[in-house]
Structures are given as structure tokens and as C-alpha cells.
Amino acid sequence: MKEQRNFGKVSSISSNFEGIMIQDRFEDFSHNTISGFVETACKYLGFLKKETHEFESIDLTSNPVKQRAFTTTTTGTTGRKTYVIVTNVHAILSEAGFKIPNTSAGHIQPLSEEVMTEEVINNFMSFMRI
């Protein structure tokens, strides 16, 4: 079995919440980052199909596509929009099991400790009055 020499040599490294440098795992990437990876890969496959003889037989018809309006500064005035066909990255990620996260989920964090009881709050308040 041939050993892959390049695996792990180029990777993303960042600081964790404690300030320690760690190598990012795939599970740690945001949905937008993964979408960017997929979009870049699809564009690269299209480039290989179009620009090389070796990969011109790649079948990209199984990739889901969508129509996107290409707008310019004069589009609003003239009313003429140009439509382009692009790969539907959302459909690819949905089929692979990646769901778009709830946008508010990143803003609300669960409590790390139990909620204080009324008795504890009363004791704390009585202590503060002294």
C-alpha cells in the first residue's frame, strides 16, 4: 500500500479558547467554510473539464445546478438580467447530510452552571445588604 506523503502537511492551525495552537479538525469548520470548499472543488472540476484533454470526459451532469441572476449597475435601469448556471452547493451539502445551522445558535450558549435557587439568591442579597 502506497503511503500518502502529503497528507497533513498543509492544514489550518488556530488558537483554541485557552490560547493553545491546535490543528483544526474538519468537524470544527463552519457551514460557510465547508460550502466554500465544495464550491471551489466544483469550479476546479469544471476548469479541468474545460481546459485539459486528460479530464475532458469528466461527467458533471450529476451535480445539481441552479440559475443565478448576474447583476450589474445598469441592470436595475435596463431591466435586463443575465442568468448563469452554477453548481447548487446547498443541494450537495444537504444530500451529504450537512444542514444549514440555525443562525441564532451561535449567539446563545447554554448555561455552564446550574441556575441559582431562590434561597441562594435571598442569602446572597442579604449578605450584600450588610
List the defining traits of the structure above.
130 residues; two-stranded antiparallel sheet; elongated; disordered N terminus
Describe the structure.
With 130 residues, the chain is an alpha+beta fold. The chain is built from 4 helices and 4 strands. A hairpin with a 5-residue loop joins strand 1 (13-15) and strand 2 (21-23). 1% of the residues are buried.
Please provide a brief summary of the model.
The protein is built from four helices and four strands; from the N terminus they run ββαβαβαα. With 130 residues, it is an alpha+beta fold.
Mean pLDDT: 76
Q: What is the first-to-last residue Cα distance?
A: 75 Å
Q: Give me the secondary-structure category.
A: alpha+beta
Quaternary arrangement of the chains shown? single chain
Strand arrangement within the widest β-sheet reads 1-2
Q: List the secondary-structure elements in sequence, H or E.
A: EEHEHEHH
Task: Give the uncertain stretches in residue-range form.
Answer: 1-9
Shape: elongated
Helicity level: 25-40%
Using only C-alpha atoms, the radius of gyration works out to: 25 Å
Counting H and I runs of at least 4 residues, what is the number of helices? 4
Into which percentage range does the β-strand content fall?
A: 5-15%
Task: Give the helix/strand layout.
Layout: E1 13-15, E2 21-23, H1 31-51, E3 65-70, H2 75-78, E4 82-87, H3 89-95, H4 118-129
Antiparallel strand pairs: 1-2, 3-4
